[in-house]
Every structure is written in C-alpha cells, then in structure tokens.
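Predict the 3D structure for this chain.
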Amino acid sequence: MNLNFLVRVAFLLSLVFIVQSCKNDPVDSDKIPVSFAFSDNLSTVYGQSVPLKIQVLEKDISKLELVFEDSVFQTWTNPQSDVEFTINLTGFGVGAKSIKLVAQLADGTEHVDQRIVRILSDISPESKTAKIVNTYPHNSTSFTQGLEFYNNILYESTGDPNRTAATMVAQVELETGKIINKNGLDASFFGEGITIMDGILYQLTWTQQKCFMYDSKTLEIKSKEFTYTGEGWGLANDGKNLIMSDGTERLVFRDPKNFQVVKTIEVYDNVGPRSKLNELEYIDGKLYANVWMLDIILEIDPETGKVLAEIDATSAAALGRSGGDVLNGIAHNPSNKKTYLTGKYWSKLFEVVIE
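Done. Predicted structure below.
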C-alpha cells in the first residue's frame, strides 16, 4: 500500500459522509416542506442499493418526485408521512451524481432538496507493470503532449512551456526519432493532446479553449476549428467519439463533427476519484491514461469509469527521464499491436508490454 493511496483514503474519509437515519441538525419545518433524512451527501459502492428516508414536513405537498441525475425514480402523490425508499444505482457508472427531491405544493410553488451521491468502484484495481522490450531515440527538445499511431505512422504533439512557439504536431520516424514533417502554432497557443479519426488530426490547446484540425497526411491546418470550455489535456478516440481529459477525474466524449458533448464519465477506483488524468489512448476497448506527476498509467473501463488496473511505468521513467520531465505519451500501433511510452523532454521512447 503506497503513500498516495493512504493520502487519498484520508482525504476521502474527511469529505464523504455515510448514510445516516436522520439529520445532524434539526429541520425547520417552516422553511422546507421535505428533506432527505441524512447528512449532506451519500457514499455508496457500485452495484449496491441505497436505502433512503425522506422526511415529509408539510401536509400540503401535492406531488413529490425523487430524481437521480435526469431520471425520475419515483413519484408520490399527497404524501402525508415520512417515506422510505430503496434506490438501485447500477448502470449509472461511478462518480459524483446528483440526487434531489422535488416537492410541488398545493399553491403551485416548488421546493428542491438536492445532494450528491458519490459512487465508488466495486473492484480493486489490478497491479500491472509496463515491461520494456525495445528502446528508440526520442527528441529531447519535445515537450510531449500527445502520441498516436495512424496508418502505421507515429504522430506527436508538443507543448510550449517557455512560450517560444514550440507547439507543433509532427510525423516522427520511430527508429531514429527524426521529425519527418511538422506544423506549428504561434506562441499564443500551448498545444496538448492529439488523436486522429478518418484522416483528421485533432489537437487540443491547454487554456486557449480551441481544438485545431489538420490533414493527417500533409499536416496542413484546416480553416475549421472547435471551441470548448475549460482546459484541454489529453485526447483519444474510440472510433466513434473523441475522448477528452481536462486534468480532473472527468472524461468527456465528444462528437467529432461538431465537438458537442455526447456524455461524461468520472474515473473512480474503490477509494475515490482519480484526477490529473492527462494523455489518453484507446486500446482494444479500454482507455489508458497517464496520471500527471506520477509514473502510473490507469487502465479504465470507458463505459463505467471504473479503474481496472494501475500500470507501474517506473522502469521506463527511470531510463527515459534523464533530466527530462514527467511520463506523458502512450501510443498503440494497430498494425503490429505494439504499445509505446515516452515523456516530456525524454531522450528515449520505449516499446512496452503490459504484464
């Protein structure tokens, strides 16, 4: 059990409240007509049912609804006494979810009691290791933000920490590390993750809230670009949607045609959220994410957000860093089924097997 694990346990225990049968503080019935009978928020485990007690504090409630996320789970008409109800949250994935009571009074006014349910994963992540099987040179001046194979060609994107117009997307020769072709952005943009779908290379920017698009063959930038709210970190795709990280535990699935949000998942293990998700790669139905500042890669179920495994990449980091920065770069080549890792300013790129 490592220190990072213990710190996260302590943090979550300080934040998450276990279900209680009643509120810690007395309820002022003159102010609210209905209330959950527990303190602040709930914590549960994926697949478990949650018993709820609802305090009915007024007699003139014409309709009461229990709403989870955007789904109405139960409706009561003219409830006259406290209600007990068990809610099964299987199928909603893990993460912080909204639960609320919506009470409509006889005079037409509406009152809402809204809380958060934090759903933890029901599995403990498996421990895996990234074993180095081959080593290749990597350009140590590249502040790697994204790494991707497409049609057997290696692509790389870089950031620009010194604001010297170093942001670029490039086609790279694997065996030599030589840049074959590249295109860059000016110093006002800090490049982040990339992914390629249907001949289009998508590139995020860190805080500029723009996603640029390039022709994957020529790297010519297209006139069309997308905008988004928040930060851009890593980018991948599942063949249908773009998948974007923003440095939190959230992963956003976006339509590649218009960049609209399709769905959002949160990445959790059996202790709590896993944040600082950075560079992403989609491999054989699973998502892989670098954890910023750690020599760890998470294997994630893209349907539920559960962390399936923690992959120790310490050996690659020890050999590749050599004066460089953090691990950041996962690329899988579908042509030969091989996986590669590198990092920011690393002098080496590694072919690895996960075992």
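The chain has a mean pLDDT of 90.
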